[in-house]
Amino acid sequence: MGLFHETLDSFDDLFSHQLQDVYDAEHQIMEALPLMAGAASSSDLKNAFNVHLMETREQAKRLEQVFKLLGTEPKRVTCPAMKGLIKEGNEAVTATGDPKVKDAALIASAQRVEHYEIAAYGTLRALARQLGQDQAAALFQKTLDEEGNTDKKLTRLAESHINQEAAAAH
Fold first, then answer.
1. Rounded CA gap, 58 and 113, in Å?
2. Residue 154 neighbours by CB distance under 10 Å
3. What is the value of pTM for the model shown?
4. SS3 135
5. CA angle 103, 105, 107 (to 5 degrees)
6. What are the distances in angstroms from CA 113 to CA 23, 57, 101, 131?
7. Farthest-apart Cα atoms in the chain, separation
8. 117: closest CA among 52, 43, 162?
9. What integer pLDDT is reported at residue 73 of this predicted model?
10. Which fold, 11-168?
11. What number of H helices and E strands is found in the chain?
């Protein structure tokens, strides 16, 4: 169905759709992260995925706080973009071959997800500010900061040893 399967008659409608979309995206990520952690051979990468799973659970709770601030029940609208990113990530999860190269592929997939989330939360923050929803904007900023930090952690892992090990593989 996608993000815009309903009529957008107001800025509030747009905000609501964006919120429901990212709520679904977070749930998809919560399902994918354990698979990614299980597929990683690097203990550092496994740990990074497991830590981010805990953060993602908190981020979903934060979204539930925003729904509450808006006086609505949490609702998910299928996020087709995240579905595609997860599908692409599953290719890395199920890939065979050198485990070190697979770890580099897992990082690449995870960073695509992080960049999508950074864009989504930045948009939500801007929409919330426009609507005068300062508490919601602050919650989105907290998540945006976490997503940025996760992206940086993944970059550090890639650049500190995982990419070098993958490049040295057969």
1. 17
2. 22
3. 0.93
4. helix
5. 70
6. 14, 15, 19, 27
7. 56
8. 52
9. 96
10. Ferritin (1.20.1260)
11. 6, 0
Angle ∠(98,99,105) on CA atoms, nearest 5: 95
Place of tokens 């679904």: 24
Rounded distance, CA 163 to CA 160, Å? Answer: 8
Contact 26, 60 (CB under 8 A): yes
Reported as a single tens digit per residue, the pLDDT across 34-80 is 999 999 999 999 999 999 999 999 999 999 999 999 999 999 999 99
Nearest 5 degrees, angle CA 17-CA 116-CA 130? 45
* Amino acid (one-letter) located at 152: K
Residue 126 · residue 64 · CB < 8 Å: no
Residue with tokens 């609208």: 77
Tell me the two tokens of residue 82.
Answer: 């995240």
Q: Which tokens go with 32?
A: 């994918």
